[in-house]
Amino acid sequence: MTLMCIGEAANFVAYAYAPAVLVTPLGALSIIISAVLAHFMLKERLSKLGILGCVSCIVGSVMIVLHAPQEKTPTSVQQIWDLAIQPDFLIYVAASLSIVAVLILHLEPRYGLSNILVYLGICSLMGSLTVVSIKAIGIAIKLTLEGTNQLIYAETWFFMTVGAICVITQLNYLNKALDTFNAAIVSPIYYVMFTTLTIAASAIMFKDWSGQDASSIASEICGFITVLTGTIILHATREHEQANTSADLRVNAGPANRYTSKESHKYGDDEHLITLHNTDYFD
User: Fold this and answer.
1) Containing H/E element for 277?
2) Which of the two residues, 191 and 94, has the higher pLDDT score?
3) Greatest mean pLDDT range, 3-7, 148-152, 157-161, 255-259
4) How far is it, in rounded angstroms, from Cα 31 to Cα 58?
C-alpha cells in the first residue's frame, strides 16, 4: 500500500510537468513491470505471447515519448480556468455528463449486471474529467510551491471539488464493475476507454497537439494503438493462463477423490462413500 501511494503521488506530480497525452499511455509500463516481477518473484510463467505484449507496450511507449508535444505550463490557475471555459471543452463536459446521467439513471438499472460497458463508460468519462482536474490542481500546487500562491483563488478550490467528486464516482463504479465482471476482462477494456477519453479531454482543454505537424500526431496515435494492443495481449495471456491453471487443478483433483474399498474402511463404519439402492447388486 505504501509503494502504491508513492506511485500514485508520482503520477500526480507527472501531470503537473507533462501533458496527459504523454503521461496517461505510459501507465501501461506498470503492467509490464508487474508481469516481469511476477515471473521472477512469484514464479508465474510469462508465455511467448506475454513477452510479445510487453515488447509492444515498450515500442509504443518509445514512439509516444519521441513524438510527445512540449508541455505548455500556464502561469496561473486563472489561465487554466480560461482553458476550462472554452466552448469546445464545455461541449465535451456537457456531453460527458449527459452520457453519464443516461448511463446511471436509465441504463444501469436495466443492463448494469449484463453489459460491462455501462459501468466502464461511467468510470472512463468521469476519469477523463478527473485527470484534467488533477492536472489543474497539480499545476496550482507547483506554482504555489514556487512562490506564487494559487490557493487564494476560488478556481483552485473549484478544481479540487470537481476532482474529488469525479474520483469518488469513478472508483465507486469501477468497484461495481470488478465485483460484477471478471477482472481480466474489466482491466483491458477500462484501460482502452479511460486512456482514449483522457487523451481526448486533455487535447481539447490544453490544446496538447497545437503546433505539432501531422506526422508527429500520427506517430503518437500509432504508438498509442501499439500500447493498447500490447496491453490487451498481456491481459488475454493472463486470462488464458488462469483458465489453464483452473483446468489443471480440476484434473489433478480427480484421482484424489477415488477410494478403494480398503481405504474407505479408514473412515469408520458410519461413513459410506457409495450407497447401493438396488438389491440386484447383492445377488
Assistant:
1) none
2) 94
3) 157-161
4) 11
